[in-house]
Amino acid sequence: MAPLDANDVDGVTVDGSWELAGVPDEFQRLWTPHRMVYIQNGQQPPEDECPFCVAPTMSDEKALIVARGTHAYVLLNLFPYNSGHLLVCPYRHVPLYDEATEEETAEIASLTQTAMRVLRSVSRNEGFNIGMNQGRVAGAGIADHLHQHIVPRWGLDSNFFPIIAKTKALPQLLGDVRQSIADAWPTN
Questions:
Q1: How many domains does the chain have?
Q2: Closest Cα partner for 52 from 143, 150, 134, 138?
Q3: DSSP assignment letter at 80
Q4: Is residue 100 part of a domain?
Q5: What is the DSSP string of 98-125?
Q6: What's the helix, strand, coil split of the chain in %, to 5?
Q7: What is the Cα–Cα distance from 104 to 72, expressed in whole angstroms?
Q8: What are the residue numbers of the active site?
């Protein structure tokens, strides 16, 4: 096999490596341009722009909110681990679970139970990962505003993509997922 000439790939002359992305090869590419916001801006928003404080001021559709309570609300994770990955947040800007009021923790628990029931009916998932990362050192993406993750899980939903390629394949658009969950949410 002849050594690769940087100016000739499969008989196509190229002027720079950026052009190689257009050269056909055996690799399939999964394009996720929506992730650029996360990559370019980092996962921490400016301190005066907490996304969990801003979200309730927006329309449910724009903020990806599926349900609103008195002390807390539920929205889709903008950067989900799995389709239907929800967050339960108090309206109040509080960083740690032990700083939340009894009313806030009770409603977070109640909304979490309802979210599990709704996800099970909409997604037919087989299990859940539920948890909170408290503080940056514990892995909290938005450490200054308490939020609980509810991640639906299915058998064999893990593969090499997230580990090797740092990529997650999601079968539905966020707006469609939000609508199906919001439509199935019980009204009081």
A1: 1
A2: 143
A3: -
A4: yes
A5: GGS-HHHHHHHHHHHHHHHHHHHHHH--
A6: 40, 15, 45
A7: 7
A8: 147
What is the rounded CA–CA span in Å between residue 119 and residue 102?
A: 25
Span 109-138, pLDDT tens digits: 999 999 999 999 999 999 999 999 988 888
| Domain coverage including residue 158 | 51-184
Let me know if residue 179 belongs to a domain. Answer: yes
Q: Tell me whether residue 93 is in a domain.
A: yes
* Share of residues in the chain with pLDDT > 70 (%): 65
- Please name the amino acid found at residue 41: N
